Amino acid sequence: MIYDHSTSSPSVLNADLHSHSTVSDGLLSPTDLTRRVADLGVELFALTDHDDVRGLAEAREEAARLGLRFVNGVEISVSWETTTLHVLGLNIDPQNEDLAGGLAVVREGRISRARGMADDLARVGIPGALEGANKYATNKEMIGRTHFARFLVASGVSSGVKDVFKRYLVKGKPGYVAHEWASLSDTIRWIRSAGGVAVIAHPGRYKLGANPMRRLLGEFRDLGGDGLEVITGNHTPDQMRHYASLAKNFGFAASRGSDYHGPGESYALPGRLPPLPEGLRAVWDLWK
Ligand code: AMP
Ligand code: MN
Ligand code: MN
Ligand code: MN
Question: pTM (2 decimals)?
Answer without folding.
Answer: 0.96
